[in-house]
Amino acid sequence: METLLAILSVFSYYSRPALFAAACVVAVACALSWATRTRRVSPFTPLGRFARERIDPFLRPVEAPVLNAGGSPTTIPWWGLAAFIVLGILAQSLLGYVIGILDMTMRGLSSGPRGAVRAVVQLIFAILQIALMIRVLSSWFGSLARARWLRWTYTITEPLLAPLRQVVPSLGPFDITPLILYYLLQFVGAFIVRSI
Question: Which residues of 33-53 are buried (b: 16+ CB within 10 A; e: fewer)?
Fold first, then answer.
């Protein structure tokens, strides 16, 4: 377990500059695609053909939602860059969260039976919070919300969200019960851990 934590810490340390370098490359590629789409670079030159053949296929997952929302086709590269940056930040945050959970679990398990019980309780609450975050983030993308490999998040969070939805009034199209549940899990988890 200690070696896994060390490997993840090293990976997290070196993945930040790697993600920044990748974001710079993606920014240049998106700028080239934008220049081709706005005809600042002719689509029939070798550079324009390269953009259409090699860069635009990577932007197709972003294209449909942008166009369906009424966006301009020329802004698709910038939306792709924004999606890359946001996903990179989320991946780094999730990795840091996992490293923190593993570190907390290791320290708890090495401090006797009481520490082991604390570690298990903290781990259960952390898994519930991660599932809640994944559920909310996947709901922002229609196809991800129905993905088979994400159903476990709905399975373990819906029994907690359903009673809250009956108590908390809706705010128009916004469902704030996941946010309330997230903070409730933090509060209850900290209270239980302190009482052990």
Answer: bbbbbeeebeeeeeebebbee
Number of domains in the chain: 2
Instruction: Specify whether 152 is located in the same domain as 196.
Output: yes
Query: How far, in Å, CA of 129 to CA of 190, rounded?
Result: 13
Residues paired with 61 in a beta bridge: none
d(CA 41, CA 190): 57
Distance CA 73, CA 63 (A): 8
Q: How many CA atoms lie within 13 A of 78 on its CB side?
A: 9
Range of the domain at 79: 1-92
pTM of the model: 0.71
Is 100 within the bounds of a domain?
no
At 80-130, the pLDDT tens digits run 999 999 999 989 988 998 898 888 888 888 888 888 888 889 889 989 998
Q: Is there a domain that residue 106 lies in?
A: no
Q: Same domain for 82 and 138?
A: no
